[in-house]
Amino acid sequence: MAPTIESVYLGNGGLSEGNNKRSNRFVKATWKNNLTALVVDNVELCRVLERENLRAYGVETVAVETGEAAVELVASGSTFNLIFIDIYLPTMSGPEAVRQIRAMGVRSKIIGLTAIITEKDEQDFFAAGIDEFYEKPLDPDWFVPIIREVDNQI
Amino acid sequence: MAETDVRKQIKDYVQTMHEQGILDHNFENVQNLQGEENPHFVLDIIDIFCRDAEICIEDMTKSVDEPVVDYAKVTGFIHLLKGSSSSVGGCRIVLACRELRKATESKTKERCVEAVNNIKREFFTVRDNLNAIAKMERSIRTDDAMTGIF
Questions:
Q1: Fold of the B3-30+40-138 domain
Q2: Which of B29, B84, B101 is closest, CB to CB, to A116?
Q3: Nearest residue in chain A measured CA to CA from B48
Q4: Which of residues 48-87 of B touch A (CB under 8 A)?
Q5: Residue B91: is its pLDDT beyond 80?
Q6: What are the CA-CA distances from residue B12 to residues A20, A63, A87, B124 (Å)?
Q7: ipTM (interface pTM)
Q8: Where are the domains of chain B?
Q9: pTM, whole model, 2 decimals?
């Protein structure tokens, strides 16, 4: 099944589909590089908020619902500076999706997300290859420094 | 009523919700994502949250009412509800979810049933307050539409 891409925010101010133009009024930060992110979350509300939070901080963001969609997107050649991925996904789990993405040689910053952090989940997710692990929701207090770090490393 | 007046009403209302511990700063993060290009964002988020949380709580209730409770399944529902509740600032639902999580860890059906009932109470409180905010938001949209007509 082809990955479901909800929408893409283009840094030049437009959306990739329809006539729904977006200005740069959202951008609460400017970066040295054009940064891109992939959000993987099967909970619609969380997925929308994660996507919009990243866009508000000037990160071109694609959002998908499943681990399979994320793996397929990366396998098709799409590259992302940041990947935010929920641990509990239907069929293919977050850790399994991360394992497959890392096995493709992807070195993007991968941030694992969960509603409730447990020691076992933390161990499993880090063993799969994430770089950091946070409880939802995305909060600028912790995700903006991550974006800044990635921007500085490019 | 002028939009600025309604915006002030919403701001004061949200402040009251903060003071009562019903909503936390994450709701303001949602509000901050609304703008001219997505004027219905807060309304959309409230609608999605209320719809999906209600379904989740219904499924949760059915699960804990089973003769033999599938605690892993209930944990899945907790993740879903806690994730979305925390995203909209529903901090009391989040606390109630934590209590249910502890109940599932103790594998005590009665504790789980009690915890789910508590989640329902907290959800109804948050839902009613979010719907009040949604009503105020809609009044702005209605005024905008009328201004467009005249």
A1: Four Helix Bundle (Hemerythrin (Met), subunit A) (1.20.120)
A2: B101
A3: A45
A4: 48-49, 52, 76, 78-84, 86-87
A5: yes
A6: 32, 34, 37, 21
A7: 0.90
A8: 3-30+40-138
A9: 0.87
